[in-house]
Structure formats: structure tokens, C-alpha cells
Design a protein that fits this description.
Helix 1 packs across helix 3. The chain is of the alpha+beta class and 107 residues long. The protein has 3 helices and 5 strands; from the N terminus they run H-E-E-E-H-E-E-H. Strands 1-2-3-5-4 form a 5-stranded antiparallel sheet, covered by helices on one side. The protein has one domain: Yope Regulator, Chain: A, CATH 3.30.1460.
Length: 107
């Protein structure tokens, strides 16, 4: 599952020309010093949103906060496995996350 979903993550990021995937052992995206998507060793994808949007999407998608290395990643929503099949739709959420990050003060 890890390698399979990693290919999906890479294809997803490739659909978004404003940023690129980083990290060899822990794939992620970042801008202005803030990470906004993360792929964990369990083959799961987390995308970062504002608090209000997190709550909305967790309820809408029936999911939880994202965990990586047994730590809860506050701000990141776990993308349900079922959503990984629709890259066009997922790219909209990843771009939304990028726009959110770009609204924050650079680190």
C-alpha cells in the first residue's frame, strides 16, 4: 500500500504546478516555511487546513486528524482512502491548502 499510494501522492502533486513534492524518506509539500501536505509511513495522506475548514471536512468526509509517527498532526486532515481515486477533486483540496498556507506569515 505504501508504494501504491506514494505513486498517487506524486501524481496528485504533479497536478499542482505552483509547488512540488519534497522529502525522500518523508514526502511532503511546503511553502513559505510551512508544510501543508504530508505522506506517512502507513501510506496515508494528510492535508493542512484552517481550523474551521478542518472541522467542516472531517465531518463531511467522516475522517479524523492525521497522524504521523504516532503523533497527531494538528491542522492536518486524514484523507480517506476512498478519496485517493479522484485526483482532480483532491487537487482542488491540495491547492486550497496551499492558498491557506500562503496566507500565513512566512517562517
Amino acid at each position: 500500500m505504501y508504494e501504491e499510494n506514494l505513486k498517487i501522492y506524486d501524481a496528485l502533486v504533479a497536478k499542482c504546478p505552483r509547488f512540488e513534492r519534497k522529502g525522500k524518506t518523508m514526502p511532503y509539500t511546503s511553502a513559505n516555511g510551512h508544510m501543508f501536505s504530508l505522506y506517512n509511513k502507513a501510506g496515508e495522506l494528510g492535508i493542512r487546513f484552517s481550523k474551521e475548514i478542518q472541522k467542516k471536512y472531517m465531518k463531511e468526509w467522516g475522517t479524523t486528524l492525521f497522524k504521523s509517527y504516532n503523533s497527531i498532526m494538528h491542522g492536518y486532515v486524514l484523507i480517506p482512502e476512498s478519496m485517493l481515486n479522484d485526483l482532480d477533486n483532491l487537487a482542488i483540496y491540495l491547492n486550497e491548502s496551499y492558498d491557506y498556507i500562503m496566507s500565513l506569515e512566512p517562517k
